[in-house]
Design goal:
The chain has twelve helices and twelve strands. By secondary structure, it is an alpha+beta fold. The protein folds into two domains: 88 residues; 252 residues, Bira Bifunctional Protein, Domain 2 (BirA Bifunctional Protein, domain 2, 2-Layer Sandwich). Strands 1, 6, 7, 8, 9, 10, 11 and 12 form an eight-stranded mixed sheet that branches. Strands 2-5 form a two-stranded antiparallel sheet. Helix 1 packs parallel to helix 4, helix 2 runs antiparallel to helix 4 and helix 5 crosses helix 10. Bound molecules: adenosine-5'-[phenylalaninyl-phosphate].
């Protein structure tokens, strides 16, 4: 009977260690399987002397039953533990709880606009909103760009059909020099630049005036890494007594160093815009390639960012400002391009692309 006790001892050890259904099953096979240790002894029962066979058989059956029972009991405990673990790992969706929306991030243009608004507010500038549909007068004539002035062709414009009658059905007629509708001051168009708000804001507030007005602009342009047909600018104007180019340069430099939180290389060169005199182009050294020349800066190392200048007296007069007393500067910051530089976005088309992963820039 010694070997039965040994087998039971061995079984007791192994069943104690078995922690999973698979491990328990191997113990079962080892002891109760067809070629298992108990079965082998049962198979050998015929060779046991007749007078011992009954007791031996009874002892073997008792051993078999004991092992069987213990395996079954341990099996139940293991199943319960496994089930509890599975339940603990399974997320519970409680339909009665409020819906937890997955939060996205603010669009990079919103982020940079907010930042600039804060910066200019700290300089005492008000933040103005302006329509995306403006009149030809607002966009061009009031800005010293009369009908047939070649400067109109610098900004290929989307004119709205039938806008003179006030019955605009929203259909957009693509302009080109030969397809432009007959010009009247009332002709409606999608604003090509934020400068279109200058005249109206001068009339609304008079001088002195400090205002910025960010807005969406539209141009009938072929798109590439730095050009979109729909993009953002942020216009700024400061009109007061004795405003000079020094004020303009100070504000531009301070604004850029605050936006980039480090010194960025800029260059100022003469630029022609009929509504400023003198006019400048303010370029920023490309922050994508560090000036090494890449597709994002059209292989020039620089990016046109913020044309600016002293507001032309004709424009001030159109806005009802006394040019004997007041002077002012204006700038038209390329907001979308600034966002490219600030967030290291290589291609401007990402901003209108709608791919959330590419737009997850800020928090
Ligand atoms: C203007 O729009 C003038 N109104 C700016 C101005 C304002 C000058 C006040 C003087 C005084 P320009 O067409 O260069 O200028 O555009 C200004 C900026 O807008 C450019 O430097 C550029 O950064 C951005 N920009 C222009 N066109 C596009 C475009 N298609 N896609 C993306 N950004 C553009």
């Amino acid at each position: 009977m010694n070997n039965l006790i040994d087998i039971k001892n061995e079984f007791d050890l192994k069943i104690q260690v078995a922690a999973t259904s698979e491990e328990l099953d191997s113990v079962r096979i080892e002891f109760l399987g067809k070629k298992g240790k108990v079965q082998e002894l049962l198979n050998g029962l015929g060779a046991v002397p007749k007078e011992e066979r009954k007791d031996r058989g009874q002892a073997l059956n008792e051993l078999k039953n004991a092992i069987q029972t213990e395996i079954e009991q341990k099996g139940v405990r293991i199943k319960v533990a496994e089930l509890q673990e599975k339940v603990a790992k399974t997320p519970v969706y409680d339909a009665s709880l409020p819906y937890e929306a997955k939060c996205g991030s603010l669009h990079p243009i919103t982020l940079i606009t907010n930042e600039l608004e804060d910066i200019f507010a700290s300089f005492g500038f008000s933040v103005e909103d302006y329509s995306e549909v403006v009149s030809d007068f607002e966009c061009f004539t009031s800005l010293n760009i009369p009908e047939h002035h070649p400067a109109r062709d610098m900004q290929d414009t989307f004119y709205l059909e039938d806008s003179d009658s006030g019955q605009c059905d929203g259909e957009i007629k693509l302009s080109s020099t030969d397809r432009r509708p007959p010009i009247t001051d009332h002709q409606k168009l999608l604003k090509t630049h934020t400068s279109a708000a200058q005249n109206s804001l001068m009339k609304k507030y008079g001088a002195p005036l400090r205002a910025i007005f960010p807005g969406r602009c539209f141009r009938n342009e072929a798109t590439d890494a730095t050009h979109e047909n729909t993009f953002f600018q942020m216009e700024g104007m400061m009109i007061d007594e004795g405003v000079s180019i020094s004020n303009l340069i100070y504000f531009m430099k301070t604004m850029l160093s605050k936006v980039f939180e480090r010194d960025v290389e800029v260059r100022l060169r003469p630029g022609y815009f009929p509504f400023v005199e003198p006019g400048f182009e303010l370029d920023i050294k490309c922050l994508i390639c560090g000036g090494e020349k890449c597709a994002s800066c059209k292989h020039s190392g620089w990016l046109e960012l913020c044309p600016c200048g002293m507001i032309h007296p004709n424009v001030l007069k159109q806005g009802g400002i006394d040019t004997e007393k007041f002077s002012g500067f204006a700038f038209g910051l390329g907001l979308t391009r600034l966002a490219m530089m600030k967030y290291g976005v290589k291609d401007i088309r990402v901003f209108n692309g709608g791919r959330i992963e590419e737009l997850k820039i800020g928090k």
